Amino acid sequence: DQQVKQNSPSLSVQEGRISILNCDYTNSMFDYFLWYKKYPAEGPTFLISISSIKDKNEDGRFTVFLNKSAKHLSLHIVPSQPGDSAVYFCAASASLGAGGTSYGKLTFGQGTILTVHP
Amino acid sequence: DSGVTQTPKHLITATGQRVTLRCSPRSGDLSVYWYQQSLDQGLQFLIQYYNGEERAKGNILERFSAQQFPDLHSELNLSSLELGDSALYFCASSVGGVRELFFGEGSRLTVL
Predict the structure, then answer these.
(1) Which of A102, A107, A110, A113 to mutate to test the interface with B (most CBs of B within 10 A)?
(2) How far apart are CA A39 and CA A85, in angstroms?
């Protein structure tokens, strides 16, 4: 049961253009969403997050959009740079546990390989 | 550098054997999480510890166990290893109550 899905295994974009990575989820209990970036031979690195009470969060070149009714979120990277080439994982979390101490139980998508060409 | 340290980085062993993976969280982080990434799979949550106590469990096999010690480092024990256990095992940490996790570089386990 794949609760978080990234349906595009890969995405190729020209430098300077916009990269749009998509993610769908099925569990209505998810109330916090995160994007992680992963380079080969490294661990995932936190990129940006959004709470379910918002529909947009922006951090520099990165913007995450959340459409709760469609259970869909997307990550926009503008402008894309060759150094952005990596695997991008979408993750979701539900408020669990006493005092929020189980927040880190993240459910990840399978990842999208982004390649930005110079 | 996330501040999370995992050892060993690579491990090759045979079926039926037992291995221990070690994780040192970022300074001050009380929560430690273990994730498994198999080929072509996303990261699968295994288990979480908070200040020495088990806090949440995912689809962790009975052959696997973990613990968090008083100094907050954690160990993941994998026993009776099978070929399908070959994967990247990631440890992550956070200050409890925060959802942004900091991941280590992972331990790549190969079972032959």
Answers:
(1) A102
(2) 8
